[in-house]
Amino acid sequence: MTTRTAACTCGQLSITVHGESLGHGICHCLACQSRTGSVFATLAAFAAPFEVTGNATQYVRTGDQGARFRFNFCPICGSTVFHTEEGIDKFVMVAVGCLADPSFPPPQDSVYDSRRHPWVQLPDGITAFAKNPE
Questions:
Q1: pTM (2 d.p.)
Q2: Is 55 among the domain residues?
């Protein structure tokens, strides 16, 4: 079974996940753009269980459809490493950049594509959604 560890920039906060990704994609929503300081976020879902090492500061944001997402970031370096959806403990969303693995597969879908910066080119074969599909 594949085991991966994602860590913040300073290494204080990490999460270890097991198995293959349940799915991975790009989010172009304005909240992810603001949260990451980039023009999109790249995330991968992994099934529970997972192990967290270190201390996290949390920020809860309510999504467009009312779901509440708990973002976990390092209180020292500020890197957002993972997030969960309140009330759903079956999986965790990990920031792909924190995996530090250039061989990680390309995204499968792109959500909030209506907010994508026009100069951002998506990989061939990716499914794009104007908003978040439910």
A1: 0.92
A2: yes
